[in-house]
Amino acid sequence: MLARDILIKAFDYNVWSNVRILVKAELVTDDQWTAQVGPEGRSLHTILAHMIGVERVWRLLSALGKIEDGVSPGPDQLTTAAAMRDFSASEAEYMGILLQDWSDQAFADEVMVTRRDGTTFPMVRWHMLQHVLLHSMQ
User: Fold this and answer.
1) Buried-most residue among 1, 6, 85, 137 (CB within 10 A)?
2) How far from chain centre, in Å, is Cα 2?
């Protein structure tokens, strides 16, 4: 399926671009790393920790349909760009295994997602995966 192949290539690109961003982030000063910027007053540290941490959330949601509290590390756990790079590499390995294992049909399947309050709703798996890619592009 062409769409499956495109998603796999897009995830390969996502890994490549995340590495490039995090390697450059390792070069900033401590003041630049923690400076509160933008309308939301978030630092480069918190923005990148969120970007990298939620990849685990979407991987688990697309595979299992639910996540447990605390599965996504935050800025307190991902304190440096190097730590983020290590975490991202681990997540990329897990995601790569899933992407290679899923059939064309699995990409098109609906996943019943369970919210923390117990309500469920369907999401199409490839839509969920596309969200990961778009999230990183922000």
Assistant:
1) 85
2) 23
Task: Note the pLDDT tens digit of each residue in 45-90.
Answer: 999 999 998 888 888 899 999 887 778 888 999 999 999 999 999 9
Task: Tell the residue number behind the tokens 């897009």, with chain if given.
Answer: 10
In one letter, which amino acid is 84? M
Partners of 110 in the beta sheet? Answer: 124
Structure tokens at 96: 């790569």
Nearest Cα to Cα of residue 111 among 92, 130, 127, 135 = 127
For residue range 78-132, list pLDDT tens digits in order: 999 999 999 999 999 999 999 999 998 999 999 999 988 889 999 999 998 988 8
| Predicted TM-score of the model (pTM) | 0.86
Task: For residue 82, list its beta bridge partners.
Answer: none
Residue pair 99/7 in contact by the 8 Å Cβ criterion = yes
